[in-house]
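Objective 1b. Sequence-to-structure analysis of ABC transporter substrate-binding protein.
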Amino acid sequence: MSDDTATQVDDEPAGRRGSLRSRRPAVVAAALVVAAAIVLVLVVTTGGRDEPSAGRAGAAGPVAGGTLTYALAGTQVSLDPAVAATAVTGLIDRNIFDSLVVQTGPATFGPWLATKWAVSGDGRTYTFTLRDGVTFHDGTPFTAEAVKATLDHVVDPATKSAYAASLIAPYEKSRVVDDHVVEVTLKRPFTPFLQALSVPYLGIQSPAALAKPVADYRPVGTGPFSYVSWEKDKRVTLSKNAAYASPPAGASHQGAAYLDGLVFEFVPEDATRYGALTSGQVQAIAGVPPVNAGRLRSLGGFDLTVQETPGLNYNLYLNQTRGPLKDVRVRRALSAAVNVAELVKNIYFGRFPVARNPLSRTTAAYDATAESELASYDLAAAERLLDEAGWKKGPGGYRVKDGRTLALTWPYWAEGNKEQRDVLAEGVQAQAKLAGIKIERPAVDTGAFVSKYLIGGEYDLVDVSFARPTPDVLRFAFASGNTYAKAGGNVALVDSPRIDTWVEEAAETSDPATAAKDYAAVQHEVLRQAYVLPLYTPVQLTAFSAKARGVAFDAQTYPVFHGVWLGA
């Protein structure tokens, strides 16, 4: 694929009744590489802009008015942040919902809807003092009851949370002390609790909105923008909350947003998003195609932000509970059969770092020495391992044992695909075949992907990236109780008492050295057992028109639109 990919863009501006469309290139460059995205993604990072665009220097002060349209891959599966787990939900809902606290550093937090808090000596009780005078978009007052209602809603089995509930797994109850004081009790000490409360998936919701039937749910928060509409698979539209007066510590200004509105366009085609930005149809895009990043920078008039995401890398998880992958030799053979470095380099033009650890190197407690456990690319070693496991070459070059072909199921979820992960998957398929491993890629819709595969377990391989600025994400991914059916990310279905002990101790201890040692042990173990094949570290390539000013990013690498304004 090149910068010259043919693109057709509607004449009607994005965010209106029409939609952006493109002619998909007839041929995608060589059958290279790997994985359709679950995209349970969140994203945390460090990084910065490649260089400031022309036109920002000497700009006048902020100007109110206008609507900014932001195009991104993926789509909404639910408007309720307590239910959905996608990065799209986090990005959009961050503008609708405020949180109790804001993350200000790797392990520091500042006030937001909570002005202060105290933690009991045993680490189990948090008492939050809340801001006065804050109002939800539906006109109801923000009080301690809203905090209780939100947290209770998250953990309620009827909510069917796909992520948020796992963030506060030790939650026991909330007690309303008075309108502006709430006491939250945990079943055990849990040091990641404040970080969990800072993310949009635990944004504080209106109790009145939560009391409505699920079919009538609409997101109602206290944030700088309020919900207007959701056109499924097309766009979500938000409007300014003119009464907004509850920004977090460190916000660029204290009043209402400058923008009158925000429109999030769902545009899965990379070339279409890029063309929409450069033609002026939209003012910002997520997921700048790596092949276009250099050209965009040279055009002028745009800002390209590059952020390497902390949390879980984009990894391939191996379901070790069924079929051939029950044997660690087969799991390590698959890892050794795939030349990840070559595939990632060829597809992403050096923009995405090759991963050799389930954690991103920007994540606290990342242990570089764990790489020694990874079964790195070695086709001869892969073949030896398969021979030892009793899988012999058969018809068509695929391995056979007891009359069965060594075939693995890796479901493809088109609605979650991004960053050419489908192309990467083709490369993994091709290289696994050289070792005699057959990978099948059934295409499924969202409903089947969740019910038959993620919950039903009828898969051998699943690909996921998941960003979160804390090593507690290892508990999310590998603790035995954190399966997808239980709102977790343990899609390898790991059931290891040792790993459970490490991640629980790390979450409960107040000693950073003990936590770091535990997290390091997990990284070594999951690579040694080949529960995971790391692929690449997602890099957020986000581009804004120079007309969009005041852009900042939070700890999750979501753009912060409260202070954004449109210049000439």
